[in-house]
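Tutorial handout. Part one gives the primary structure; part two gives the three-dimensional structure as tokens.
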Amino acid sequence: MARYKGYKIQKDMRYKWKPSKTQKREFAERMATDTAYSEAYHQRKEQRAEKRRSTSKFDYQTAGGEYIPTESQNKAAFELLNLNPTPEQKEACNMVLYGYSCKEKVHHDFIHLINEYIRNKK
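Part two.
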């Protein structure tokens, strides 16, 4: 089966509804102006996500894996540690410093926080 650039192959050929440009614009305006509507929308979205997570067999605790931090992440963690970080950032810094110095694997959430700091620093 040939794949053409720019086209996605659907698993089933059912019609999938997508909002029009005006519907997208109206939704964005309503979300920006009507706080009760936006809160209800986010609450429904979170409830759907919780329902999916509860029946899922996916292990969310180990998702993403563990990695050995790089030298640049180690330097960034040391910089962030001297800038009065939040408790979450402080824990991430300590774990990345430990992981780099001992060549031990660290959970990707800690590395993600350091990478976020590196991106925002620039």
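Part three, for discussion. The longest helix spans residues 35-55. Residues 21-55 form one domain.
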